[in-house]
Design a protein that fits this description.
It is a single chain. The protein is mostly helical. The chain folds into 2 domains: 145 residues, no CATH class; 145 residues, Four Helix Bundle (Hemerythrin (Met), subunit A). Helices cover 68% and strands 3% of the residues. The chain has 8 helices and 2 strands, in the order βααααααααβ. Helix 5 runs antiparallel to helix 8. The N terminus and C terminus are likely disordered.
Length: 322
């Protein structure tokens, strides 16, 4: 008796080994470069030096990249450093978009790289117009889109990772989409709180809205953590970021309380340097909460898909003749 396997119904998708590693590498580098940019931007706002350099795109008439280091003192140091790091992030985004277009077989991901490039260009223009037009509203919009761009860079790092090239092998999550909805709502609430935080930092107003959404975020993070630990405790791809999100929430609540007491009351008079570092760290932990919650939401959507359903998974079927 001879058994002769015949391959039938083979899809034309690429094998995992044919994927270039460079899109993922560049996406990770871009996300890592964007994070300190948020911190520096937060310092610029906390120190009130957003207009320390009065012209744009030049710096006191110099080409931005040729401005003398010896003149980078006081507020100029922070504002000009922000511009230089932002330029590096822009160049990395261009490199990633080109690499995705040349090396990435998934069309939707190539266009997502283009969207990231468009967003970083928009951010650069917003930052420049804020200096030229002296509009506080543009500074608030710039701060909000900075967080959105960071979330997009982390998404690109996830989508280009090896695990995302093909669907999960385990059985899909069987919770009727509850986890997806809860994670999505939590992510949206965190971003809304970030928006209120930007309003508060730039205008000193909307403290009530910021505190309200802080409470809503805390409640939803706790609910999300409980659902994952109780219903999906075997999924490490969900469990680890859930624990991280819970830890970030604790740190964020502590920093938020310190920022409130130090800035809006006389209960805890903090030195100026301590207050600046506290409020800026509060900002970037909020950014980390946003991308961690987004990671959970994206992975929940991915793990809800039937095995082999995603486009690009090679399916091999065999028939045997006796």
């Amino acid at each position: 008796m001879n058994v002769e396997p015949r391959r039938m119904g083979v899809e034309t998708a690429r094998h995992p080994s044919s994927f270039s590693p460079w899109p993922h590498r560049l996406a990770v580098i871009l996300a890592c470069a964007t994070f300190p940019l948020l911190f520096i931007g937060g310092l610029v706002t906390s120190l009130g030096v957003g207009l320390a350099v009065p012209d744009w795109p030049t710096t006191f008439g110099y080409n931005m990249f040729l401005y003398p280091w010896s003149k980078m003192i006081g507020g100029v140091f922070y504002e000009h450093s922000h511009r230089l790091v932002a330029s590096c992030v822009g160049l990395l985004t261009i490199a990633l978009a080109l690499t995705l277009w040349l090396k990435e077989p998934r069309p939707w991901l190539r266009w997502l790289g283009v969207a990231a490039l468009a967003l970083v260009i928009f951010q650069g223009i917003l930052g420049g117009l804020r200096v030229v037009l002296l509009q506080q509203t543009l500074a608030i919009i710039h701060a909000c889109f900075a967080q959105a761009f960071f979330a997009l860079t982390v998404s690109l790092a996830l989508f280009t990772a090896k695990e995302w090239r093909y669907p999960a092998q385990s059985a899909p999550l069987s919770d009727n989409g509850r986890l997806r909805r809860l994670a999505t709502i939590t992510t949206v609430l965190i971003y809304i709180q970030i928006v209120f935080g930007a309003l508060l930092r730039h205008t000193g107003e909307r403290l009530d809205g910021h505190l309200l959404f802080a409470a809503l975020v805390a409640l939803h993070v706790i609910l999300l953590l409980l659902r994952i630990t109780r219903q999906h405790g075997t999924e490490t791809a969900l469990l680890r970021p859930a624990y991280l999100l819970g830890g970030l929430l604790l740190g964020q609540l502590l920093l938020g309380a310190l920022s409130y007491l130090g800035k809006f009351t006389a209960v805890l008079p903090l030195p100026a340097v301590a207050l600046v570092l506290t409020t800026t760290t509060h900002l970037i932990i909020g950014a980390l909460m946003l991308v961690t919650s987004l990671t959970i939401a994206l992975r929940a959507f991915r793990l809800s898909q039937p095995a082999g359903a995603a486009h690009g998974r090679p399916v091999l079927t065999q028939q045997y003749s006796l």
